Amino acid sequence: MAEGMLAMSAVERERLVLITEASVGRLSQGLVAERLGIGVRQVKRLVRAYREHGDVGLVSRQRGRGSNHQLAAGIGDRVRDLLCGKYRDFGPTLAAENLAEREGIVISRETIRQLQVELGVWKPKARRHKKVFQLRERRPRFGELIQIDGSPHDWFEGRGPRCTLIVFIDDATGRLTALQFAPAETTHAYLAALKTHVLAHGCPLAFYSDRHGIFRVNAKDAVSGDGKTEFGRVAARLTIEAIHALTPQAKGRVERANQTLQDRLVREMRLEGIASIAQAQAFVPAFMARWNAKFAVAPRDGADAHRAWTGGPEGLGEALARREERTLSKALTFSVGGRLYCVRTKGPGTALRGVKVTLYHFMDGQMQARYKNRTLALTRVGSLPIPSPAEDEKTIDARIDAIVLAAKAAPATSSLGCG
Q1: 257 near 177, Cβ under 8 Å?
Q2: Is 329 exposed, middle or buried, given 0-12, 13-18 or 19+ CB atoms closer than 10 A?
Q3: Beta strands per DSSP E along 221-355
Q4: What is residue 368's three-state secondary structure?
Q5: Torsion-angle region of 354 (φ positive above 0: left; ψ -120 to 50: alpha; else: beta)
Q6: 8 Å CB contact between 107 and 96
Q7: Tens digits of per-residue pLDDT, 89-147?
Q8: How far apart are CA 273 and CA 156, in angstroms?
Q9: Within 13 Å, how many C-alpha atoms sit on residue 247's CB side?
């Protein structure tokens, strides 16, 4: 008896006293079950084990044995090596997914987390007291509201230049609808993502963005123009409402997606050895499919709110084209972007002197001049000096990177000033 008592834990000793009382009938099995917090059937089994084996019958048979879920020695060592090397800065969830997909080792996320803590390669983030924002309920239908944002980041971790990822995510489902890598966050980059979205899904009802100058005219004293940016004009042509958030928290879905992409996408591109925008863009479709399979949810209303686009790629290219007006001189010339063009005509062309033509700047770099639905033939006849473009906080990194690359490529020359 003393030997059995010494081998028992405090819980088991307490259980022994109550089971002993139940086995001799001094306590009912229902009362013992209530005190121990177990079922009556379990009490019956314990009483039977006590009568057959005495104190030993109440000692757990798992004591001294290894866990049924412990890793085999070889597998455990391999996992530890991978967590310290190839997947060193991966979070537990992402590491578990890649171990299963790439290494064929299926381990739970919690086991990975415990191993990372043991190896000292992962620490939970300190929790901060954050301001509480009331959550807005998701929109009911896919395509009612698309949140859009740009995420400048070192996406290639030094293997390539810093760049920006344009993110389109549906509010109702959390589904990524377009990812577009670009050197900087520009109107052209957003239009490229918009083109991808429309060709794949149609036109959404509304876009939800921040108040950057790409989306909204912020000048308080603006008295000329139509009050829209180039992106705003394209959205209007496609009958897409533009909504601007007052705070970053208001468009939290795309903000949180940016954080997760900077974690997951960066590491997956590292494993694939991706080091350029072209390679990253080719990788995007497969990544989006996996993301949407894992994170997207079903909308409350199964109806799709997108309006189908029937104009085809050519019609969409025209809708996305930037437009501006120019007045032809007496010589039928006009200037744009530091270049001088002349309209070619079969006759004298006097009817075109002083008329206003509309220039269409297409996303592929081509330009057309149109007058009364007629495309005019053009000849470039010269160039004009143009000032250096102004940069903002969203394009300055790309500009500096280009300057640095040019400086590295230039041959070393001596000068009186800078060497």
Answers
A1: no
A2: middle
A3: 241-244, 322-327, 333-336, 339-344
A4: strand
A5: left
A6: yes
A7: 899 999 999 999 999 998 889 999 999 998 888 877 666 656 555 567 899 999 999 99
A8: 9
A9: 6
Distance CA(277)–CA(283), nearest Å, equals 10
Query: At which residue do the structure tokens 């969830």 appear?
Result: 93
Q: What is the crossing angle of helices 187-201 and 312-320, to 10°?
A: 150
In the block, residue with structure tokens 């010269």: 382
Of residues 201, 189, 210, 165, the one with CA closest to residue 320: 189
User: What is the spatial distance between Cα 14 and Cα 55, in angstroms, rounded to a whole number?
Assistant: 12
Displacement of CA 4 from its chain's centroid (Å): 59
Residue pair 368/408 in contact by the 8 Å Cβ criterion: no
Q: Which residues pair with 339 in a beta bridge?
A: 336, 383
| Count of beta carbons in the 10 Å neighbourhood of residue 132 | 6
Could you give the C-alpha distances from 65 to 246, 275, 417, in angstroms and in order?
Answer: 59, 49, 77
DSSP string spanning 36-52?
HTS-HHHHHHHHHHHHH
Buried b (16+ CB within 10 A) or exposed e, 163-177: bbbbbbbbbbbbbbb
Task: Tell me the pTM.
Answer: 0.73
Roughly what angle, to the nearest 10 degrees, separates helices 252-272 and 277-295? 120
In angstroms, the CA 399 to CA 387 distance is 15
Find residue 208's DSSP bridge partners.
147, 243
Cα→Cα distances 113→13, 110, 117, 158, Å: 34, 5, 6, 28
How many CB atoms neighbour CB 111 within 10 A? 16
Let me know: does 195 contact 294? Beta carbons within 8 Å.
Answer: no
Under DSSP, the state recorded for 300 is S
* Tokens of residue 99, six digits: 């171990």
In tens, the pLDDT along 360-381 reads 999 999 999 999 989 999 999 9
Let me know: does 66 contact 56? Beta carbons within 8 Å: no
In this prediction, residue 206 carries a pLDDT of: 96
For strands 241-244 and 206-209, give the pairing.
Answer: parallel
